[in-house]
Sequence to fold (501 residues):
Amino acid sequence: MEIEKTDRERGITVLRLEGRLTMVSAPRLKSVIDEAVDSGHPRVVVDLAAVTFMDSSGLGTLIAGLKKARQADGDVRITGVTQQVATVLALTNLDRVLRAHPTVEAATDGW
Amino acid sequence: MVARTEERRLRALAALNILDTPREERFDRLVRLTQRMFDVPMAMVSLIDEDRQWNKAEVGLGHRDDVPRSASMCDHTIRGDEALVVTDPAHDPRFASYPGVAAEGGVRFYAGQPLHAPGGARVGSLCIVDTRARTLDDNQLAILRELADFVETELARTDELDRAGELQRTLLPRRTPHLPGYDVAGVCLPASAVGGDFFDWHALGDDFQVVIADVMGKGIPAAIIGASVRSVLRGASRFNDVEVAVNRAAAALESDLFETSTFVTLLAARLDPPSGTLTYVDAGHGIAGIVSRDGTAHQFESDGLPLGAPAWEPWRADRVVLEPGDTFIALSDGLLDLFDTIEEAREAARATVASCSTAQEVVDVVAAYARDHHATDDVTAVVVRRHDVA
Fold:
């Protein structure tokens, strides 16, 4: 899985993922998010539009990243969410915590 | 005597549950390392089955097609405990006619170290093959033995996974409870040897509690967390109602779940058998409900978060009554993968309950469906049916 990181102003960083987000690639995403938060970019947008498959490990990593980001007064927001991912988020009620946005711009709104 | 030894050998090989499994990085990396260490074009981990050589891992061959045992040099390797080194296979009466050797630019060097199953049976070999003539000195033979030890450790690890799976199965309820006026059934089918799903049930005084849970992730890490959740929830349930029990269990598990970046969806339902009152807490589980005697479905709606979610919101219990003839059913989300939409999955569950007359029948249908459709995630189902009045 590829992770393309673009740092922006106001502590924002955008992570564009491509490929499969599973048990194998999730730890790498976790370190990238942790690093971003630790280096002054706790406002993380994760763009999942090019993610071909995501399982619960991927979701777990986004949730763990979100906890850490919120502790630093930031957040993790997601964009490019597929029907499959949206269903799991709704089923577990995690959509109330890990918010999906239609675009990266919409996700950074208010930051 | 020879036949019996071979029988034991084949049983030991079968018990490894390794034949015809996909490639795995933990074996691939060992053959790559072996290839580099000896600077050969080909290296493989082979297993010798009844009539064939099957390769778990290979580098340089480009495929893992079966080789008939009669054309396999590795078959000779397993006949002894020492490495088999063949420096001139083209002029060796044992191998000269083998297709791999006889071919133009074929095998001119082979060295194989036998691999043992945990009980000692020789099941295959770690081997290197070259198209150039060469030899191996004592130091190199020692290295090949060490690498083979690594491979044996990995073979045993597969075995260990199976034993972990067996243990996990013993933690699931094995007996259907004696609950007059009700029948109860459950099934848990992990996607691999061990999984993150579990279900539980137990009596609490006159009440009966049922739990279905799904630890995020798969395999051993999820199973370990699952075992912990099961215990903590059992402990908290003994002295508290189901709402307090879930909240207390969640608090107790919070730091473990944080440390492991895990969350757990769960549904805990406590039944008062005489009245049929079912008090339940749904922590992000989402796929549960009642199918009434007349076949209509009443789905549980809940906005409870999973345990380990990054926001703390106290869980609230809801209440519903199981009338005679009603059935409570809870399914894990692994089942959803087998349907196009969640609505289809729910309708299939409703229809199944409506058409079966016992909880066990429902559970059997779900299990068969999961197997037939090759579920890739853990699949769990729990069913509690209240008997109809005569």
About this structure: Chain A has a mean pLDDT of 91. The domain at 2-104 of chain A is CATH 3.30.750.24 (Transcription Regulator spoIIAA).
